[in-house]
Amino acid sequence: MATQASSKNSAAKPRNPNESLSEAYEHIQGATANVKEAVSAFSANSSEAARKKMHEGRERAEVYGQSVDTWVKTRPYTTMGIAFAAGLVLSRVLKK
Asked: What pTM did the predictor assign?
């Protein structure tokens, strides 16, 4: 029972406002440091993921480029017809 009374008395004592502010400031500093670390980690992971995606995209573009190159070489007249039609459509669209 004596321990319960002493704990109630310590809880009922008003705390020094300066101590509360300094504790709050320390908590804020700790939280700020945690946020900075999280942002740094996210940034590092994002840049690595972006590099991987860029590399994959570059590889796909090379594959598609080779595919188009082969198609153009095997069908030159069809390619010229498509280019002519695309030019005709673009000129009509851009005139208006």
From this structure: 0.43
